[in-house]
Amino acid sequence: MLLPFHQAHDVDALLLRWQKLARSLRLPLVTLTNSAGMPVWALESPAAREGEPAIYLSAGVHGDEAAPPWALLLWAEQNAAKWSRGSFLILPCLNPIGLRLNTRLDHRGHDINRRFHLTRDPLSGPWRRWLATRRLQAGICLHEDYDAQGCYLYELGPQRQSLGPALLQSCAGVIQPDPRRRIDTSLARNGVIRRKKMPTHLPGMPEAVELHRIGCPVTLTFETPSEFSLDDRVACQMAFIEAATQRIATSRSA
Fold first, then answer.
1. CA 37, CA 103: separation in Å to the nearest integer?
2. What CATH number has the domain bearing residue 58?
3. Are β-strands 54-58 and 186-187 bridged in parallel, bridged antiparallel, or unpaired?
4. DSSP3 helix / strand / coil % (the chain, rounded to 5)
5. Buried b vs exposed e over 31-46: b needs ≥16 C-beta within 10 Å?
6. N or C: which end of the chain has fewer CB within 10 A?
7. Which stretch of DSSP H or E encloses residue 245?
8. Does 236 map to a domain?
9. Mean pLDDT of 185-200
10. Which domain holds residue 9?
11. What is the pLDDT of residues 102-120, one digit of tens each?
12. What distance in Å separates the CA atoms of residue 83 and residue 88, rounded to the nearest whole number?
C-alpha cells in the first residue's frame, strides 16, 4: 500500500514530510501566501534558482483530488538526488485547506484553477510574481476527474510531435488511458487532448493555460480517475511524473 486511505486528506502530514525533505536537501521552502492560515509553499532546485530553464510541477489545486499531492511527494522523496541536481520548480499543494476539507474550492469558495490570470488575487498574485523571475522549460499540472474512465492528458504546446501517447503508455500498466473520444467537451484520441493553440472562451484562466501564456513552451495537465483505487491513482501519477520529467530532461540535453 502506497498510502493509508485515512491519510489522503491529512494535509499536516503532507506538509511535514515536505519540510523534512527540504531540510534534508538544504533547500528553502518559500511561502508564496497563506490559505486560511496554512502555507502555500514553493520549492526550487539550485539550478532553477540560478536561471536554468526549469520543469514546473504542481499539485493540490483541487482539494478533492487527493492522489496528485501525495504522488508528487512520494516521487520527490524517491528521486530527491536526481531532481535536486536538475532544474525544477515544485509547488507541493496549492490549495491546502481544500485538501483538508476534501473540497474542490478554497476557503473563499473559489475554484483557484479559474483565477491564475488575476494579478491581485491572494494566491495567483504571489504565484505570478514568483514565476516572473524564473525560466520555464515545461509545466506539469497534476489533477483528477470524477467522470474519468481512465487516465488522460491535456497537452498544450507548439511541438510537432505529441508527447502524450508515449507518456500515457508509461502509465497503462497501472491505469489504462481513457477510451472516450470526447472528454469534457474536448476531442480526445487515446486519452490525449492535444491543443496547439490557446483555448478561448474560458470562464477563467487555468494554471496550465496561464503558464503557457506567460511563456512556458509546453504544459501537460494529467488526470487520473478519482473513483479508482487510491493506491492505483497515486502509482499512476508517479509513473506519469517520472516519464514526463525524463522525457523533458532528455529533450533538453539532446
1. 17
2. 3.40.630.10
3. unpaired
4. 40, 25, 40
5. ebbebeebbbbbbbbe
6. C
7. helix 230-253
8. no
9. 85
10. 5-148+155-231+241-253
11. 999 999 999 999 999 999 9
12. 7
Mean pLDDT (the chain, rounded): 94
Write phi, then psi, for 94 (nearest 5 degrees). -80, -15
Helix (H, G, I), strand (E, B) or coil at 206: coil
Q: Fill in the amino acid letter for 16.
A: L
- The answer to whether the CB of 97 falls within 8 A of the CB of 35 is yes
Answer whether residue 46 is part of any domain: yes
> 37 in a domain, yes or no?
yes
pLDDT at 154: 96
Cα–Cα distance, 162 to 218 (Å, whole number): 10
Name the grid cell of 86: 536538475
Q: What is the pLDDT of residue 182?
A: 96
> How many domains in the chain?
1
For residues 78 and 253, give the distance between their C-alpha atoms in angstroms, rounded to a whole number. 23
The residue type of 33 is T
Of all helices (H) and strands (E), which one includes residue 28? none
Q: Which residues of 133-146 are buried (b: 16+ CB within 10 A; e: fewer)?
A: ebebbbbbbbbbbe
Give me the residues paired with residue 88 across strands.
55
